[in-house]
Amino acid sequence: MVGGCVRDILLGKHPKDFDVTTNATPEQIKGLFRNCRLIGRRFRLAHIVYGREVIEVATFRGHHQEESEEDNEQESNLSKQSDHGQLLRDNVFGSIEEDAQRRDFTINAMYYNIADFSITDFAGGMAAIKAKEIALIGDPALRYREDPVRMLRAVRFAVKLNMRISDKSAKPILELAPLLANIPAARLFEEILKLLLSGQGLETFRLLCQYHLFEPLFPLLAPMLKDQQSREVRFVEQVLINTDNRINTGQRVTPAFIFAAFLWYPLEERVQQLMVEGGLTHFDAFNLAMNDVLQKQIQRIMIPKRFTIPIREIWQLQTRMSKRFGRRAYQMLEHPKFRAAYDFLLVRSEVEGGQLLELAEWWTEFQEADEDARKTMLLTLRNTESGAGAPSRNRRYRGKKKV
């Protein structure tokens, strides 16, 4: 066994999964187990299936080599890099010593041998654990170029394990952070979930900003976060605080809420821009702005449609929640995304205050009220015309009907 499972056991944590590695090639593993299937092109792996359990087995990786005619005949055993130095394929097999040098962090390069119950540490992982330090194996700049996602992993491990990123490993991050723009958007979506839905999202967010890693992930929001006292920063941090609390108390969370929050103020900015420059109504500008903002964001992080739909609903309900007359308030309560939209409104009201706070308090009271109290609230609202969307008393004169 190798990697995170060995690390977590040494730290007294319960491993999430167990990684197995061997000197046998994927094809040799498949020959030994009928219930084995080979997966991956970038990293060739063997999945051995036992009922509902899947054991993932990797072959020891070796050092990179230049392509030759012989290599071209066996493409699955090649290491290929992009112009930026990013590894596109890594199927050069080698020894356990070489495999250790190919791993990312020292704390992930310890091997547990089940034959004699020994731990082999080639890269100083034990010392790093004692020093509470996240350190890359080899030249950090080169390793980040091979896979820029390692910068995100460094942040994630630092927060998760309550460690610090070593000075040597931290130094190149500011310069190389833009390389994240070269990572497939679908892969970054999975990484974002690991980063922000870990129960430590607030601390992770702050560390991402510290190392300028947030900007290539959310380029529309990042420019708004320069002032630490701004409403945008306070809003994002409050959303992450609430999300962390829900995760740590076993409550359900959805990525849609996080993305809706991160893109809310870029959405508002785009709406105003379209209204001024295009002369559009707020309704038309809002609908067009939703498309624009989501389209730009998914170029960096591929948000699946199953999340973009509820993101839109949460946004749309923010505008509809101020229109409370007649049956609208009751219809709003019946909307499938009302609760998420209401929670979203609560955070906005905490940050912005003013009329938004009054609106949030009204919806809180309306939900808890009985039917008679609700009717009274709606009647009071109509009489005072304090809610947006009140029907106009000024009727247009149509003139007498001609006979």
From TrEMBL:
Protein's GO biological process: mRNA processing; polyadenylation-dependent RNA catabolic process
Broad class of enzyme this protein falls into: transferase
Compositionally biased intervals (Basic residues): 393-403
Keywords from the named record: ATP-binding, mRNA processing, Nucleotide-binding, RNA-binding, Transcription, Transferase
Pfam family, any one: PolyA_pol_arg_C
Domain tRNA nucleotidyltransferase/poly(A) polymerase RNA and SrmB- binding: 162-224
EC number: 2.7.7.19
UniProt GO MF annotations: ATP binding; poly(A) RNA polymerase activity; RNA binding
Catalysed reaction, written as an equation: RNA(n) + ATP = RNA(n)-3'-adenine ribonucleotide + diphosphate
Domain Polymerase A arginine-rich C-terminal, residue spans: 279-399
Residues of the Poly A polymerase head domain: 1-134
Region (Disordered): 62-84, 384-403
Domain of life assignment: Bacteria
Record's keyword annotation contains NADP: no
CDD domains: NT_ClassII-CCAase (cd05398)
NCBIfam families in alphabetical order: pcnB
Protein name: Poly(A) polymerase I
Protein species of origin: Paraglaciecola hydrolytica
